[in-house]
Write a structure and sequence with these properties.
Keywords: DNA-binding, Transcription, Transcription regulation
Structural class: alpha/beta
InterPro entries: LysR_HTH_N (IPR000847), LysR_subst-bd (IPR005119), WH-like_DNA-bd_sf (IPR036388), WH_DNA-bd_sf (IPR036390)
Strand order of the largest sheet: 4-3-5-12-6
Number of domains: 3
Family: Belongs to the LysR transcriptional regulatory family.
CATH topology of the largest domain: D-Maltodextrin-Binding Protein, domain 2
Number of strands: 12
Radius of gyration: 33 Å
Organism: Hyphococcus luteus
Mean pLDDT: 88
Distance between the termini: 70 Å
Largest sheet: 5 strands, mixed
Protein name: LysR family transcriptional regulator
Shape: rod-shaped
Number of helices: 10
Low-confidence stretches: none
CATH class of the largest domain: Alpha Beta
Order of helices and strands: HHHEEHEHHEHEEEEHEHEEEH
Length: 302
């Protein structure tokens, strides 16, 4: 009666080792199994295939032409299997996959963030990091809709309703600077105080886009008894800076004066403003991605 034999990966590994060594004794030592058991497994494999894989010699064995062909295929099969195992483990550990991250002027304004993004790319080459440019509120909505996996925004853009479904980590602190156009009288001042801003024309944030920023900034002016003359409201820093550069007024931006350079704009610290904001990484509470965990750890503050 024919012996029932079911070929398994271990049989291919046995054959590969014997085929490489062309010696059952050496192969058995490498595989850490008894030589008779190895000889028996190879014989069953030959019976299953219906071909002779080895020519038996007085001392050792030699691959037959069929054996050489089967060894080539076996090497390829086992390499694919080992690759699949490695990739699967990498996926599970987070070292493989893809992440879509909302990206805006915030990230380029803070020097730590671009460098950490680069470090992550270099340390995790098998994780594809797609940086998608979009405004802060658009990032938050895209994150809630699962169109992106993480967002980098100012904490001024998040609401209590957002945080019902999103989790966050504050990854950096952003200073608030006064944007002045070249030639403005305050550019010549060694220090600027809130009282110096009385009577100045201002570009102001739109409250619907940045409610906390709007409220904190308005409160700071109120505390110092200064009433801004608001000439226009803007939704983004880039628009505000363009209008400042055109001489339409002054504005506050979430940039440090030493992190922004422009020919027609000067950023200055207001000594008694007392405002700074956190740059916040957001992600969905329901997301259990291992790759995301690696990314969040990489972006954590030092």
């Amino acid at each position: 009666m024919r012996y029932w034999f079911r070929m398994e990966l271990r049989h291919l590994r046995y054959f590969r080792t014997v085929g490489r060594e062309e010696h059952f004794g050496r192969a058995a030592k490498i595989l850490n199994i008894a030589q008779p058991a190895l000889t028996r497994q190879i014989r069953h494999l030959e019976e299953e295939l219906g071909v002779q894989l080895f020519e038996r010699l007085p001392r050792g064995v030699r691959l037959s032409s069929a054996g050489r062909a089967f060894l080539s295929e076996t090497e390829s099969i086992l390499a694919q299997v080992e690759r699949a195992i490695e990739n699967t483990r990498s996926h599970a550990s987070g070292h493989y996959g893809s992440l879509r991250v909302g990206f805006s002027e915030i990230a380029s304004a803070h020097h730590d963030i671009p460098s950490k993004l680069l470090d992550f790319r270099l340390s995790e080459p098998n994780v594809t990091l797609d940086l998608l440019p979009m405004g802060s509120r658009n990032q938050i909505e895209a994150l809630k809709d699962a169109r992106i996996d993480a967002a980098i925004v100012y904490d001024t853009h998040t609401t209590d309703a957002d945080l019902e479904v999103l989790d966050y980590s504050d990854i950096a602190v952003s200073d608030i600077s006064l944007a002045l156009y070249q030639g403005h009288r305050l550019t010549k001042s060694k220090k600027i105080w809130m009282k110096d801003l009385d009577g100045e024309r201002f570009l102001w944030p739109i409250r619907s886009a940045m409610p906390r920023y709007y409220d904190v900034l308005t409160q700071a002016f109120s505390v110092h008894g200064v009433t801004p003359e608001i000439v226009q409201e803007t939704a983004t820093n880039s628009i505000l800076l363009s209008l400042v550069a055109a001489g339409m007024g002054l504005g506050f931006v979430e940039y440090s004066e030493n992190r922004y350079q422009s020919g027609n704009i000067i950023l200055r610290k207001v000594e008694d403003l007392g405002i700074s904001f956190n740059i916040r990484m957001l992600w969905r509470k329901s997301d259990d991605s291992s790759a995301l965990d690696l990314f969040l750890n990489a972006m954590a503050p030092d």
